[in-house]
Design a protein that fits this description.
The chain is mainly α. It is about 75% helix and about 0% strand.
Length: about 120
């Protein structure tokens, strides 16, 4: 029973694929589509051949099509820029909050009567 739990935990963990592995899978899907003249089943076939998850390969192919302009969506570059801007926005909000608290503290200090 203990080993079955370990097997389930291993199956549930996400596997990380290198950029080279992703690119290879996308190239294979696109080549197979060009060869067959159809796209039905190509993602599942390539994923099975490489031992990758079907949904992972499907996402990579869709993102590659978006990046190439063949499909509507947010490109990888736009996604990275959006992530960077959101991080910068969080940092600026945090700094602004600190400055507002400091201004309130020092403003209260100035209003106190001094002896």
């Amino acid at each position: 029973m203990g080993s079955m739990g370990a097997e389930l935990r291993l199956a549930a963990t996400s596997r990380r694929y290198s950029p080279e592995q992703r690119e290879q899978a996308v190239r294979m899907v696109l080549a197979l589509r060009a060869e067959l003249g159809a796209s039905a089943g190509t993602v599942a076939r390539v994923a099975r051949q490489l031992g990758y998850g079907v949904e992972s390969v499907r996402k990579w192919v869709a993102q590659a099509e978006i990046d190439a302009g063949a499909r509507a969506g947010v490109t990888s570059a736009e996604s990275r820029e959006l992530k960077r801007l959101r991080q910068e926005n969080r940092e600026l909000r945090r700094a602004n909050e600190i400055l507002q608290r400091a201004a309130t503290f020092f403003g209260a200090e100035l209003d106190r009567p001094h002896r």
